[in-house]
Each structure stands twice: as C-alpha cells, then as structure tokens.
Write the structure tokens for this entry.
Amino acid sequence: MVHLKTGALALTAVLLATTAVSAQQRELKYYGDFDPIPLAAMEALIADFEAANPDIDVVFQNFDHEGYKTAIRNFLTADSPDLANWYAGNRMAPFVAAGQFQDVSDVWEANGLSDSLGSAKASMTIDGKQWGVPYTYYQWGIYFNKDAYAAAGVEVPTDWAGFVANCEKFSEVEIDCLTTGTKALWPGAGIFDYINMRTNGYEFHMDLTAGKVEWTDPRVKATFAEWAKIAPFITSNHAAIDWQDAAALLIQGKAANYVMGNFAVGVFKEGGMTNDNLGFMVFPEITPGIPRAEEAPTDTIHIPAGAKNVEDAKTFLAFVASADAQTKLNGAIGQLPTNKNATVDTSDPFLSAGFETLSTAYALAQFFDRDAPAEMAKVGMEGFQEFMVKPDRIDAILERLEKARQRIYN
Amino acid sequence: MFPRPIQQTSLTAQWMYKLALPVALILWLLPLLGVAMTSVRPAMDLAQGNYFGIPSSFAFENYLDVFRNSDIGSYMLNSFKVTIPTVIGAVALSTMTGFALGIYKFRSNLLVFFLFVAGNFVPFQILMVPVRDLTLDLGMYNTWYGLALFHIAFQTGFCTLFMRNFIKALPFELIEAARVEGVAEWRIFWYIVLPLMRPAIAALSVLIFTFIWNDFFWATVLTTSKETQPITAGLSSLNGQWVAAWHLVSAGSIIAALPPVLMFFLMQKHFIAGLTLGAVK
Amino acid sequence: MSRYWKRNQLRLAPWLFLAPGLAMFAVYVIIPIFQSLSISFYDWDGLGEAVYIGTDNYVELIDDEAFYISLKNNVIWLALYLLAVPAGLFIAIFLNQTVRGIRIYKSLFFFPFVISQVVVGLMFSWFYAPDFGLFYKLIELITGQGIAILAEEDYVTYGIIVAGLWPQIAYVMILYLTGLNNVAPDQVEAARLDGAKGWKMLWYVILPQLRPATFIAVVVTVIGALRSFDLVSIMTDGGPWGSSRVLSFYMYEQALSEYGFRMGYGAAIAVVLFAIMMVFISGFIWKMWRDETER
C-alpha cells in the first residue's frame, strides 16, 4: 500500500512537472519490453532522469516481451523512437550491419565507460565501435537443492568428476541429477555453453558461436563427450516441459541440480525454497587450468539510426550507465549492475555470489542465442535438445549443425 | 451398416441405444470435461497432485482471477473489435458479388467465380509476407482494423461462393418480371433480392463470426501487443505466463471458447444451414 | 449519359456490383500470391535491401532436412486426417435416430468444431502432459510406464493429429447428418426387401446418395490437413527438435519467428505448399466446373 502511494505521488509530481514546463520540453521517445517489476524500476529511473533534466520529457512505450522481438524490426524502419531496448552480442549485429543502430562510442569516451563498464565492453563492440549501453546483467550457474544432496548422501562437488560421480548416487535414490525443461529450447543451451567453455575455454566458445570453427571439430566432440557422461541423468521428459516445470522438480526434491540464470531464484522461493535449502555453485571445472568464463546475458539500450532527438538520447544513455542509476535500478529488479562502481544488495546471498562470480571471471559470454546469430541459435538448440535425448546421434547432429554454419555465416 | 430406425427394433436394443448415447458423449467430450473440471479446481489441489479426484472445493474464483490478473478482458474486447466489422464487411461485399455472379450472364462470370473459390482455398502462408508488408505500408500494422481489413478481403472468397449459390437457387422469374417493369438493377438488388437473402445472411454471419473469432494465424502475423491482439493470440501468450498453472489456463480457455459456443447454441439452425450448404443437393 | 446507362445497364451492372469485393480480394489475396512467388527469388531479412538470388532458395530447400521432415509430416497429416471422413460418417449414422433429446446429443457431439484450435491445442496439451495428464496416466496404468507423447519424435505428430481430428470429425459428422436427412427411406426399404444388409447396404445404397456430402467433407478435410498450423504452434512449437513441423509452420518459423527472418526462404516454402495445394484445388475446381456447365 505504501508502495502504491509513493508511486501515485511520484506520478502526480511528474504530471505537475510536465504541465508546468511542457512548453520548453523536448520529447525523448523510448520503446522497451519490460516485465512488470523491471518496468516499475525503469519508470523510477526515468522519473529520476527527468528530475535531473527538467527540459527533457521521456515518452516511454512498453511492449510485450515476445511481441517486441518482431515489433522492433518494424518500428526501426517505419516509426523510429529515440531509444530502444535490445541485447548485447551477436543479437545486435544484424541491426548494426543494416545501419539501424547509431555508433555511440562518443558516449563511452566522454563518460569513461570503457573503464566503469569494462566487463561488458567486448559484448557491446562491433568493428571497434560501441553501439549501445548496458544497464543490467545476471549470472548463470548451478542451482541445487541441499535436501536432495542430503537424501542421496553426497557432498556438493568441487570438480566435474565429482559432479558426474554424484549423478550415479542420485539415480540410485531416483533423483534426477540434473533437470531442465527444453520445450522452449533455450534452457538446454545454458548447459552446452558451460560444458563447452569449461572444456575448451572462452576463446574457443566465442570462435564457435562466431562461426569460425567447424562443428565437426574434435574439440566440439570432446565437449559433447563430457555432456554424454551426464545425459542419462537428465530429467527424461525435458523436451515436453517448460523451465518452470523443471524448477518445480527441483523444489520438490525430485531433481538435484539445475543449470539456470539467477532470475529462477524468484520461482524457487515462490515454490517454498529458502536460503537454507537452495544452493548456488559455479559450474565446476572440466579441463584443469582453463580460465573461468561465465554466462552473463546483458540487457542494453540503443539509439536507432532514425532517432530524431539524438542529443538527449545520449544524455539518457550516460545517465543509465552511471553507477548511482544502476545501483538503484538493479536493486529494484534483483539483478547485477554492469557498472563496476555500483553497489549490490549484500543481504541476498545469490546476488552477492553472482557479483563475486562475475567480477572475478576471466570473461563473460552472453548466452548461446545471443552470441550466435538467431538462425544458428535455433538449429543449435534443437541439436542440443536432441542430443540430450538421443546421445548416440551425435555425429548426425554435428553434421547438421556444420551444414547450417556453412550456410549462415558464409 | 445402416441400422433400421430404432423404433423398429427390440426393446432391449432400444434400451441399449439410449444407454450408449450418454456414454459415447462423455467419452467424446472427455478432454473438454477434463478442462472444465480443472478450471474450477483450487490451485492447492494441483499443487498437491489432486488432478482427477473430487476437487476439494469449487474454485470459481479462478475465473475472477483470470480477469483480474491478466489482460484477458482486453484480448476479448479486441476479438470483438476485429470480428464484428469483419462479419459486416464480408457479408456486405459478398451480397453484391454473389448477386453479380448469380444473376447476370456474362462471359467471364464463371472465371471470376472460380477465382473467388480457388482464392479461398490457398494456404495462408503464400499470402503472409506480402500481406504483412502491405499492412505495414498502410500504417495499419498492429491495429484491429488492419487485421479486420484482411479478414474481410479473404472471407469475401468463401462468402461469395455461398451467396452466389444461394441466389442462383432463387426463382429467377421474380427478377425477370421486375426487369420487364423497368425496375433499375440496383433496385432489384435492394428491394427484391436482398430481402430474400435474409436466411443466407444470418447463416453466413454466424459462420464468419466463428471463423474469425477462432483465427490464430493472422492474429500472430498482423498484431503484436496486448492492446491489439485478439483472444486466440492472447491466450497463447498467457499460456506462456501461466506455465504449470493449469487451473488458470483452463479457465482462460473456457472464457475464450464461450462467445462462439454461445453463438452456435443460440443460432444453431443458421449455423448448420451455413455449413452444409452445398453438401446436399 | 443516362441513355448510355439505360442501354448498357445489364452489361455494366455486374461489374459495378463486383468492384468493391473483387478489388479487396485482388489486393489481399490474388496479387500477394504473385508477390510471394517473386519474393521467393530474393534473399531478404525484412530489414535491409532484398537481394536477387535466382533459384538459390529452392536449391537450398532440396538439401534441407527440416523441409523433408515437414513434408513427410504433411503427408502423414493428410493421410490420417482423411480418417475424419469415415469416422464422421460412423458417428452420423450412430446418431441418425429419432429418440427423445437426440437433437441435444447432435449439437453436443458437434461442438468441438466451434472451439478455436488454440483452445483445442491447450486441452490436448493438458491431456498429454507428462506425469499428470489423463492420457499419460492411462498409459501408465496399462503399461506401467507413461509416455510423454509430445516429447517423443515418433509419436508427437500423431498426438497432434488426434487433437486435430477431434473437431474435424465433428465437422464431417454434421455434413453427413444433413445428408442422411435426405436419404430416401423408400429406397432403403426396397433394398432391405432385396436382402441388402450390412456393408453392402452402406456401400451400394447409402453412400451413393451421400456423394455431395462426401465431396464437401473430403474438400474441407484436405484443406484443413494442409493448413494445420495452430495446433503445431500451440502444442509443440514444432518440437521436439523440429520433429513435428509441417510446411505451414516451417514457413512461419523461417520467415517471421524470433529465430528467423528469412522472408525469401519462407516464401519459397510457401510456394511449395501452394503448389501441393493447387493440385487439390484444381481437382475441386475441375469437378465444380463440370457440375456448373452440365446444368
């Protein structure tokens, strides 16, 4: 109730401010695709921005998350806003290549972002220029049910061999060692990314998703050989269930481990788990000595080529990149700020673990469907799903992926 | 394999038949009954694994929940906004095309007629990319009228087939008599033929209402946001939000199915007349 | 002017009546068919410039495994969907009696057809759901091991077709019920006196009289089978690993989904689907043409 009231007050204040100075105000159009909680956080950020820049009026329009992915292709050409949400990595490459996003390297330069947003810089850079500003990311890793570990009488593993050995023990007490729900395909890609990065390292993973390595390469086969060790212990109907269904299995203790992003913590806790029985671990090392890279999908804001108010859009980007704004925004949505000078809520063990994990990581990947081009991502993720169910088809699957690679990247 | 009228059979056979009817019906509607049951099951039952037993209570609040916590109301409204203009538009256009093709003899008559019929059967996918581009160019992408306009155009094919066959069966002497009297053609259409077409108009309206209400493909191609998407597309995205909440999915499904079902039961005679036109001649 | 109109009224009037409907139909249906044909020779992502690539899309199609899976599934759909015709006939004969309340039974049997395919798809997803679905439980009861139909590449297409058959059988049933109303009772009686029974009666006496209903039933079933999109999209999204795709779905996936904006390639798939459908459409039109010109 209190929350609602302050919201209403803020709204009134904004309305008053709008009417008072609307004559001199410049309009800044911003399209985004937020779920309810991040939406509220972004609206608060916008209010702060308007308070700091009374001559700018941000007109924000929110889209449905899935619809946005198609809508952006239309509005970028037909009716361009001044700012638009999108994602880092290869996901933004088609827009950059088609000249739909503006180069914002000057914003990075002027605000020292190369330093403060250093960890995310690589994923925002194409042809040596930066094409947007990141405002949030979150860690991936293995979430586990401590009760399931107790039921099987095993310890949390410290390396891959230990993890695989545990799987046998879990299967003896009829607990799925690893769960996932691949109806929407992407959860399976998290498993692949980690096993590949741990087996062959970050650079190899990036080369593979960038289409520079053949999928039939022996190193890729080595990745799948590691994966095959745990494939029999993955929830058997995963192709028919969603990631939330799989989360329920972990909550009920029918599954022990889950390779997931930090957003799943909310679902685990809604299902009754607490900090006492929900655990988080970094994906264990496979090939000894390989520097540890992590998945950290980054959400970003861009200036479309057709923007009318570029000056103010750049002011907004600088604001979003600032440590204070990111601290506040991410505090509200329970994710991690990309600005290294921002602070994180230390009372949340998963957030602090994530901050620790990511800030000490050797490098960050965006996630398979953002690092690889969309079409490759689709073919790849179907392959991963098939592999988990039919591991013996590995050769046919890799040949299919290789064929797709040759066509898509040519 | 063609049974005698049941009245001519033995009493036992009659009883068997009367018993078989409800049993067959229940089996036939099993998926539907299951969903209807689930829609009034409290969430707690589902969480405890009570999927098929007696519900611990009847949770009609699931329906309230759906309305309160999702945009289903706005999706339903959008469906009406798309469906009703489509019914009016397609029926209006096809009374005219049907009249033209049913009454007048001209050389390309059959050719035009079969153009409509064939167009009505083409796969949607061959139209998808150009229609989407056209709607974008017209600035009607993601609006209810952009979607309705396409539906009107496409349904004109089926409606013309229907109307033309209906008009063809009308007594032609009426029109000839009027022509001898010197009545203008548009007056013949308006005052003589149109009143006779009332049953056809009723049948088509009910049918088109159902077709358009249930359309999913074009809704996903031409609309994207909750402000414009009709219930079919809306339900599909709600399904994404309500993973594992089958009581909500079920309640939402029932709500989405309600208008055409009501339409069917209220207008049954017209509906079936519409569907079966041409099936018996 | 008015004299010209008077003299030519009969010649001009049909075209004036046709104009609005024909114009709309041309803009939204006829012309797009040719535009799609032309787009299929381009490489276009809907964003930048379209690049002419000749027949490359079709060449790629010939070597595309997913295309063949879709094609194969389309054939399965077509073959099994036609089961709706005998099944609908069977139910129609079963219900073709006059007892109290039979009208209610007829409408209740029919009403799956009125429900949107999205809802039908959700209902059957629930029916098939692993671990708690009614169907899963039944199989588990019988064999001791449940089957998640929608996760098995060997069963998934059949599972979806069953969902599609449900409303389609209802549709065919209503066509036949109306047809049965018009079956001449005296002919049936006469045949009975001649000793016609069972299958012979159905095949030689009843079915010939139901020919118009059968024609329409086959037409709508074939079109329905080839148009199948909603159920695949709702129930599996083409999965697991693309094994339940059909051409209509594959086209959409390639041209307009999150993971593909290949308008040209999608158009090429649509052209193939269109060609397949044209075979059937031409057949129907040819038969209708014959009927029309004979009269």
User: Anything to note?
Assistant: The domain at 67-276 of chain B is CATH 1.10.3720.10 (MetI-like fold). The CA atoms of residues 163 and 200 of chain B lie 7 Å apart. The mean pLDDT of chain B is 88.
